[in-house]
UniProtKB/TrEMBL annotation:
The keyword Nucleus applies. Keywords: Nucleus. It is found in: Nucleus. This is DNA damage-binding protein 1. It comes from Lupinus angustifolius (Narrow-leaved blue lupine). The lineage of its organism: Eukaryota, Viridiplantae, Streptophyta, Embryophyta, Tracheophyta. Belongs to the DDB1 family. GO terms for cellular component: nucleus.
Amino acid sequence: MCPFNSAAFPDSLAIAKEGVLTIGTIDDIQKLHIRSIPLGEQARLICHQEQSRTFAICSLKYNPASAEESEMHFARLLDDQTFEFISTYPLDTYEFGCYIISCCFAEDNNVYYCVGTAYVLPEENEPTKGRTLVFSVEDGKLQLIAEKETEGAVYCLNAFNGKLLAAINQKIQLYKRFIVVGDLMKSISLLIYKHGEGAIEERARDYNANWMSAAEILDDDIYLDRKKISLGTQPITLWTFSSKNTTHVFAASDRPTEIYSNNKKLLYSNVNLKEVSHMCPFNSAAFPDSLAIAKEGVLTIGTIDDIQKLHIRSIPLGEQARLICHQEQSRTFAICSLKYNPASAEESEMHFARLLDDQTFEFISTYPLDTYEFGCYIISCCFAEDNNVYYCVGTAYVLPEENEPTKGRTLVFSVEDGKLQLIAEKETEGAVYCLNAFNGKLLAAINQKIQLYKRFIVVGDLMKSISLLIYKHGEGAIEERARDYNANWMSAAEILDDDIYLGAENNFNLFAVWKNSEGATDEERGRLEVVDEYHLGEFVNRFRHGSLVMCLPNSDAGQIPTVIFGTINGVIGVIASLPNEQYFFLDKLQSNLKKVIKGVGGLNHEQWRSFNKEKKTVDARNFLDGDLIKSFVDLNRSKMDDISKAMDVSVEELCERVEELTRLH
């Protein structure tokens, strides 16, 4: 990857991958606009030079006609407007391009392309020879003006104080003040160049043993603060670029990631591409502040927004999708949809169960529902002693003359050759409002009943809050074990653990109840006690266990269970079950933050978060406001110091603890 800027492609990136050069910008939602430039060979390295309006690439072309020279390697020059090859420098037999940069030297205003190479001989385990090549661009042609043979591969090059810094095998060399080095087996070292002595001295080292593939400087004092994150399974190349006056690092690998620093902490953001081999920034009128990213068959151009947002891609359906479910085994989505038919007065609404390919998002199969039949719920599940996976759909017949549906169906579909096949159906005496896989069976909520088809079950009743049921296998019966006797109009419910159950109700509140398994009497054991209450301010209609973020290997956050919630306003949020020590620490931090952070329009935080409904208002309890807590890192230093003194904890530790919390979402 390399950045470049031109009138046609402002602030863009050129990205090399097998057979393709991709020009791209990263847009405001961190999604990449794509324009493909077929090369006919594999682009391994790419660099942009604004002064000559060119790209230089190191590429590999296969030659099936020659057994001895099956691979041919080149340094090539491309026009950054037409993307046509305009000059070629063939590398020697067995010589590979390892690194490429554009730079200038002390007391020389010209700009040069510098290429580091390695001779990869079949009989050698490690290259013992390489070259550093310096090219100028004259009249649109690559001109070799200097070369230096080295006793090893030139794995990395960088411009440094008007000189050329080269990493040769495991050595650092300067040609003709702080340097960060990623040693293959010894992790990161911080070096300083002593100009008067012409020597390089090690100043600091990370003594953890890491097999390094890349290292980069973000700013002056955070690069020795150890962070660890998994970025895929392939070797990683790091490239710096500037966006919105901030330095970012692009990690090119099979799971490309943008890395940047905010308030002395490292943040990571996935890029919605796969297997990026190279990147460079560039800037032009059409693509300001952009990146060009090379991947297989494509050159992608993108821009990066100021903040992290969800990647959004709209798939026009031409009808209203009411329910959706993904099935990994068949690589499909199943949806229940509604389509209006203005041509028919009797059938103005038509309802379907449809199958979509999860790569192309095209309709590949359709099952039409009956007249007046609505899809109410859909899941993907399997059954006992059956390894196949099925889509199960619950429906209701909504007749104009009925206040409550008296009929519904449970439909079971398999996916065979990309088609929906109805393999079982069961008519019910009411709407099938909810379905769930349960001990190899299908659990269905039908109007006001819970039924099992063919051990703890939590039910959110519309008017009667949360109930805990148990399935007695020997008797084939479902029995109520405990309930919350408060009146709550429920919108969603979820099990957090064996004894704690989460609920959402129609006054935009969240609450949790506790099952007292050790109660002395049947009455105590049969009552679910409310232990947590909180005003969210959003109408929640779904809870799901899981997470939307990558898990850091060395982070405690990955061990914290989380539940995702979705609301009718399109909000997606996370609820995390924190350990006691972390909860009490963050509760104290939240109390101190409320003293220095005032709500918009003078809104009182405690009043806003109080559990509130028609006949009950109580202070929030056992819930923390994650948005308030993470705002600590955005405070100015003086306010941070005030909170630090009040808690008797250093600012650095507070930032680290808050950063750990932000990794949950």
